[in-house]
Design a protein that fits this description.
Number of helices: 22
Shape: globular
Number of domains: 3
Structural class: alpha/beta
CATH class of the largest domain: Mainly Alpha
Number of strands: 12
Strand order of the largest sheet: 2-3-4-1-5
Helix content: 40-55%
Distance between the termini: 23 Å
CATH architecture of the largest domain: Orthogonal Bundle
Strand content: 15-25%
CATH superfamily of the largest domain: Winged helix-like DNA-binding domain superfamily/Winged helix DNA-binding domain
Radius of gyration: 25 Å
CATH topology of the largest domain: Arc Repressor Mutant, subunit A
Largest sheet: 5 strands, parallel
């Protein structure tokens, strides 16, 4: 089942229809659906599709040669070009006569085996691009390779690409399209558990309960997701043990560099280097209070929901899982799911606000959204606002998100209004988001206050 990616497919089709040389780099973390996107794009087109393998240069050249001969003559010839330059030069020659697509998937595997490949491509592009109708697509899963070897100023291919496309995990609304047979509440829970990474969503059976899916996907030692975080780190980095320790520390509540450093027993500079790489991989993200550009208050959080769930719940239950005691393990997880969903619901509400803005329905034309925390000068205590968004120096929105069984009462709105007085905006709009609705008192208070939007989880899904 193929869902989403309409914008990406449209962008690729537009480049295809240009009928001139195009060099597109498609990149993104593993499991995010890059190859599935390419397959969908190629479904009604002839193309040379070659996937690089972790082997030597000759084996990769042999495989590329087979794909080229299969394309040009319709047979899988048992022969090979003498070099990558000869093979790619032949493709460029074909492309002068007809629209030709060449996809090199897992490009870093090939380039690492043949050190001169990127320079060879650079030379052939510079020589042939004006006469060529080649649509060259390089697909890259290694984010560090992408930054250092393709996008970097000193990289041979720098400046040659005509487009680049970073493939992100699905948003919450696209995930809901996939989970057609689940209840609305279970859709949110599944999003909180596996996020929007397509390969992880494929492990979910939407005919089963969330509990059964957790047991099947995480609490079974032979399941795909049981060892996925560790396996993914092994593919990306050399010292997965230290990175695992960093993520575990964040999952346990250590959010500042100094706290993480203390927990894992590494120097703060070393710790910062690990955090930088985890951020580049899209597994961890930096967060500062909304509107604060300084670094003094920077904290780190796990940005990928599957990793967050795994390090929050699976690590502590590995002994039970190894003994196939899934029921016991789940009994230690289930009671905490609602609490776990708090920050997930905030993320869903942010996505809803962006959707409203892009559809012209939001009363505040914010340019960014984020969480704010700081000290209340009146009480000298720490306080926070779930979501803030500024339109300009005079106008902003403030939001509170509650994933609870109880209806949101007047006190939540009044507290949000009070916290907004810590800021000097003249025009303020308030949003309350609730899983379970609002009390009559809250509805009446919102009506009398004005500039208040009460949004239920059911409203978000409409």
């Amino acid at each position: 089942m193929f869902i989403g990616r309409e914008n990406e497919l449209a962008a690729l089709q537009k480049r295809y229809e240009s009928d001139r040389f195009e060099f597109i780099v498609i990149y993104g973390r593993r499991r995010v659906g890059k190859t599935a996107l390419i397959d969908k794009f190629l479904s009604d087109k002839r193309a040379i599709y070659f996937m690089g393998i972790e082997s030597n240069a000759q084996q990769n050249l042999n495989e590329l040669s087979s794909r080229i001969f299969e394309y040009s003559s319709g047979i899988n010839a048992d022969t090979s070009f003498s070099s990558f330059q000869a093979a790619l030069g032949y493709v460029f020659d074909i492309s002068k006569k007809e629209r030709t697509i060449l996809v090199i998937d897992e490009y870093p595997y090939v380039a690492k085996a043949s050190k001169s490949l990127s320079s060879t491509l650079q030379m052939l592009i510079d020589k042939n691009k004006d006469e060529s109708k080649l649509m060259l697509i390089l697909c890259v899963s290694s984010m560090s390779y992408m930054e250092d070897k393709v996008l970097a100023y000193k990289a041979p291919l720098y400046g040659r690409r005509t487009a680049q496309m970073k493939i992100e995990p699905f948003d919450f609304f696209t995930v809901c399209e996939y989970l057609k047979n689940m209840s609305d509440e279970d859709k949110a829970l599944v999003y909180g558990i596996v996020g929007g990474t397509p390969q992880y969503l494929l492990q979910i059976d939407d005919r089963l309960s969330v509990e059964d899916n957790i047991k099947n996907c995480f609490l079974d030692p032979i399941s795909f997701l049981y060892e996925e975080p560790v396996n993914l780190l092994k593919q990306e980095i050399r010292e997965p043990g230290i990175y695992t320790a960093v993520i575990s520390a964040i999952a346990a509540g250590a959010t500042r560099v100094s706290e993480i450093s203390g927990k894992i027993g590494e120097d703060t500079n070393v710790c910062s280097a690990y955090l930088k790489i985890l951020t580049e991989l899209g597994l961890v993200e930096k967060e500062t209070p909304y509107g604060d550009t300084g670094t003094r208050k920077t904290i780190y959080k796990i940005s990928d929901n599957m990793f967050r769930f795994w390090y929050r719940f699976v690590v502590d239950n590995i002994s039970y899982i190894a003994r196939r005691a899934a029921d016991i393990a789940y009994s230690r997880i289930g009671p905490y799911l609602s609490e776990y969903m708090g920050s997930v619901f905030e993320d869903i509400c942010e996505q809803y606000l962006w959707k409203e803005l892009l559809e012209g329905k939001c009363p505040v034309m914010f340019h960014s959204l984020g969480r704010w925390w700081g000290t209340d000068p009146k009480t000298r205590s720490q306080t926070e606002i779930d979501i803030m968004g500024e339109q300009d120096r005079d106008t902003a929105l403030f939001a509170e998100c509650k994933w609870t069984n109880a209806k949101v009462d007047t006190g939540v709105l009044e507290l949000l209004i009070y916290r907004s007085t810590l800021f000097n905006y003249q025009n303020k709009h308030y949003y309350l988001f609730s899983r379970s609705g609002f009390t009559k008192g809250c509805i009446e208070r919102a009506r009398s206050e004005g500039h208040v939007s009460l949004v239920t989880y059911e409203d978000i899904l409409k």
